[in-house]
Amino acid sequence: MNHKELEEGNQLALDFDKISKIVHNGVNVVPVVVQDQKTKDVLILAYTNLEALQYTLQNNIVAFWSTSRNELWKKGETSGNRLKLIEVRVNCEQNSLLYLVELEGTGSCHTLDSRGKFRHSCYYRKIEKERLEKIAGVE
């Protein structure tokens, strides 16, 4: 399945190997849930390592560790859709983070909606009878 079909299609093709791919690459990361502070929408699930976390805390602009490119990913550097850090929360076992953010730009997802605008959130589809369906009003 190509990226266009994966990101826009209605075929369910979950990547159940994602965590094992990260482990295989020997990257030490924790997952980060990113939530819009005002709307409470979940925007992104990504990963951070120590370098990305330090950058985020020092600059109040969210950065992640790109597990596919194995490099620091300064969110919004190319799109202009930055995530301004408001607060970092740590879960009870200290193995995941929650970033509360303010979106600086038009959307947080790298995909574009039908109008050619960046989507507000990466969570724009739902599972309906084992297929994916776009969520009305989330476009």
Task: Provide an overview of this structure.
This protein is of the alpha+beta class and 139 residues long. It has a single domain (3-134), classed as Ubiquitin-like (UB roll). Helices cover 17% and strands 34% of the residues. It contains three helices and eight strands; from the N terminus they run ααββαββββββ. The strands form three sheets. A four-stranded mixed sheet has the order 2-1-6-5, covered by helices on one side.
Question: Brief overview, please?
Answer:
The protein is an alpha+beta fold and 139 residues long. The protein has helices at 3-8, 18-24, 50-59, and strands spanning 30-36, 42-48, 63-66, 71-74, 82-90, 97-104, 125-128, 131-134. Strands 2-1-6-5 form a 4-stranded mixed beta sheet, covered by helices on one side. Strands 3-4 form a two-stranded antiparallel ribbon. Strands 7-8 form a two-stranded antiparallel ribbon.
